[in-house]
From TrEMBL, chain A:
Cross-referenced PANTHER family: INOSITOL PHOSPHORYLCERAMIDE SYNTHASE REGULATORY SUBUNIT KEI1
Keywords: Membrane, Transmembrane, Transmembrane helix
Annotated transmembrane regions: 12-31, 51-74, 86-108, 158-183
Species annotation: Saccharomyces eubayanus
Protein name: KEI1-like protein
Pfam families given in the database record: Kei1
InterPro entries: Kei1
Automatic annotation (TrEMBL), chain B:
Domain Phosphatidic acid phosphatase type 2/haloperoxidase: 177-314
UniProt keyword list: Membrane, Transferase, Transmembrane, Transmembrane helix
Membrane topology: Multi-pass membrane protein
Compartments in which it is found: Membrane
Transmembrane segments: 45-63, 70-103, 150-172, 179-198, 263-286
The protein's name: Phosphatidylinositol:ceramide phosphoinositol transferase (IPC synthase)
Ranges of Low complexity composition bias in the record: 382-395
Gene assigned in the entry: AUR1_2
Swiss-Prot/TrEMBL GO biological process terms: mannosyl diphosphorylinositol ceramide metabolic process; sphingolipid biosynthetic process
Organism this protein belongs to: Saccharomyces pastorianus
Chain segments annotated as coiled-coil in the UniProt record: none
Sample GO molecular function, one term: transferase activity
SUPFAM superfamilies: Acid phosphatase/Vanadium-dependent haloperoxidase
GO cellular component: inositol phosphoceramide synthase complex; membrane
Region (Disordered), start-end ranges: 375-401
């Protein structure tokens, strides 16, 4: 029996069983991936989206569908499904890192184009407020001198922004290891062994998308088996 | 007695079963006896000390007169000591603590409050979700969408917790309402603490003031709900949101947290209606962003908070639901979830197939599944293993060994 490449956690935060952790991980991921659906609604609202935003939102919707499967099967896990989830979660982690870098650049580039004039009086009516998008129009205003001291300083705002982003990424990586550990345990458990003949047999007379889906699960299973078992 | 209540709810009630009965005694001695016998666990200590410290803080920080505060706390104490009222008010302690803290929040002196962040939420939203989803959804507005957004945000949200509590009490298993009060109360309590510790401006602020610095002297805004006020010819939302207790409490969204918690409890008790409850949460999410009251990251914080607290409550407090039963009076017993017994990765000592291979001393290579599996033959030599375990070994491809 081969050992896995890295030492994976055997419980969540040192005390919680892996299956409960996976339920939490997938639940949080599914909630977050709903962002894709709301982003795509830009189609109907007329808000302009660039290419990377479209890619991010469509990818979110796809991963949402994959992760939802896991939530339904967590108490009766299926190795093929969880292998697919584990591989896609890993790919998604890499994509998230890339998107985070990309959109961070976008945000700070936009901030550099700050218009020093105040827009406080520009959006007095509610109707125009709702139609007004300072970011889309590049009219972010600079922070004025804070007399009262009740508002956060620029450095405080940046620090908190970076902290939240980093903490979310760190959790993301930890969640990925939890999922990998769960799949590793499934691989070691005879109850969840995959009989390939059965899988091949089941695929006959199925629609092509189902066959492709099953094929991708099988590919993910092989990959997980090679890396984790 | 053949009144409608008996016909509807007590028809399936098992004889001599009292799990669903309510306490009707008014004798405080019963409560005192319970307290004497009570042996708190570590989690009980954490629970009561935490709530007690918040209550003490509110007692000191609230600007109401001392006499009034003492009277309120005495009344609460009396309601907790009397068994008939205790079963509701004692279990509602997390909710009462949240409400006490929430209504005290507006009296915190501005010079002692943390600084208000204006850029953090739009920045984090853009970094994590590609854009400000609130901007995307509020780009175009019309009266139909205004009404559609107003229904869950301005109406259902305020009545839903009570409706959910009543339905859970009647149609859920006994004690599920205690779990709901615990989870709902803690979610809101943590939410209000976070809102006070991390004051952040909502999307309407960015629309009105851009990213200029904020101060506690500013009034809140009804955001898109101002259009509803205009449409209905009232000023209810403008007045309410202008004088909100937590004006810069965008993060986390308790609208999102509450709706998620309600949906999770309903999904738990009535799993067949899951799509309906999920749709409600999605509808409310859309409405909060459309009305420019929250960023998507606020909604996520609220929902994740709810989800984590619900998961904890589900596995530590909630009774197991039997979907074949009609209402609380149909239950004969209350069973809790056994986390270790139901672990799908746990080994069952009675079943040789479910012993994890990692626990066994194996000196053969299992990575041989490319070999076609061989069905056992009646001409094979005698073997001591059971048929089921032999099939399992065959599927592993290690039969040859």
């Amino acid at each position: 029996m081969r050992s896995s490449l890295v030492a994976l956690p055997k419980s969540f935060l040192g005390f919680m069983p892996l299956y409960l952790a996976v339920e939490i991980v997938l639940g949080i991921s599914v909630l977050n991936k709903c962002s894709g659906v709301y982003g795509i609604l830009a189609l109907f609202t007329g808000h302009p989206l660039d290419f990377m935003q479209w890619v991010a939102y469509l990818w979110s919707v796809f991963t949402l569908i994959v992760f939802v499967q896991g939530l339904y099967l967590i108490h009766k896990p299926n190795l093929l499904v969880f292998s697919q989830i584990c591989v896609l979660y890993t790919v998604d982690t890499i994509c998230t890192c890339f998107f985070t870098l990309w959109f961070t650049t976008q945000w700070f580039t936009l901030e550099d184009k700050v218009d020093l004039s105040s827009i406080a009086g520009d959006a007095s009516s509610t109707a125009s407020q709702a139609n007004y998008n300072p970011i889309a129009t590049g009219k972010l205003t600079a922070r004025s001198i804070d007399i009262s001291g009740q508002s956060a300083s620029e450095s405080y705002e940046y620090s908190i922004t970076i902290l939240i982003t980093l903490v979310s990424l760190i959790f993301r990586f930890y969640f990925n290891f939890i999922l990998a550990s769960f799949v590793q345990e499934l691989l070691h458990h005879p109850k969840y062994l995959v009989d390939r003949d059965d899988v091949e047999q089941d695929l006959k007379n199925k629609p092509i998308w189902k066959r492709l889906w099953a094929k991708s699960q099988k590919g993910c299973y092989k990959l997980c088996k090679n890396l984790l078992e | 007695m053949a009144n409608p209540f008996s016909r509807w709810f007590l028809s399936e009630r098992p004889p001599n079963c009292h799990v669903a009965d309510l306490e009707t005694s008014l004798d405080p001695h019963q409560t005192l006896l319970k307290v004497q016998k009570f042996r708190p666990t570590l989690s009980d200590w954490v629970h009561y000390l935490f709530l007690g410290s918040i209550m003490l803080f509110v007692f000191i920080a609230n600007p109401a007169s001392w006499i009034l505060k003492i009277l309120c706390y005495c009344l609460l104490g009396a309601l907790i000591v009397i068994p008939a009222t205790s079963q509701f008010f004692f279990n509602a302690l997390p909710i009462l603590t949240w409400l006490a803290l929430y209504f005290t929040s507006s009296y915190f002196p501005a010079d002692r409050r943390p600084p208000i962040t204006v850029k953090v939420l739009p920045a984090v939203e853009t970094i994590l979700y590609g854009d400000n989803l609130s901007d995307i959804l509020a780009t175009s507005t019309n009266s139909f969408l205004d009404i559609l957004a107003w229904l869950p945000y301005g109406l259902f949200h305020f009545g839903a917790p009570f409706v959910v509590a009543i339905i859970l009490f009647i149609f859920g298993p006994p004690t599920v309402l205690q779990g709901y009060a615990f989870a709902f109360g803690y979610m809101n309590l943590f939410g209000v603490i976070m809102q006070n510790v991390f004051p952040a401006a909502p999307p309407w602020y960015k629309i009105i003031y851009g990213l200029q610095s904020a101060n506690y002297g500013m009034h809140g805004s009804p955001g898109g709900l101002a259009r509803i006020d205009k449409l209905l010819g009232i000023s209810m939302y403008t007045t309410a949101f202008s004088n909100s207790s937590v004006i810069f409490g965008a993060f986390p969204s308790l609208h999102s947290g509450c709706s998620t918690m309600e949906a999770l409890f309903f999904c738990y008790c009535f799993p067949k209606l899951k799509p309906l409850f999920i749709t409600y949460v999605c509808w409310l999410w859309w409405s909060t962003m459309y009305l420019t009251h929250h960023y998507f990251v606020d909604l996520m914080a609220g929902s994740v908070l709810s989800y984590v607290i619900f998961q904890y409550t589900k596995y530590t407090h909630l009774p197991i639901v039997d979907t074949s039963l009609f209402c609380r009076w149909s239950y004969t017993s209350i069973e809790k979830y056994d986390v270790s017994k139901n672990d799908p990765l746990a080994a069952d000592s009675n079943d040789i197939e479910s012993v994890p291979l990692s626990n066994l001393e194996l000196d053969f290579d299992l990575n041989m599944t490319d070999e076609p599996s061989v069905s056992p033959s009646i001409f094979d030599g005698s073997t001591s293993v059971s048929r089921s375990s032999e099939t399992s070994i065959t599927s592993l491809g290690v039969k040859r060994a």
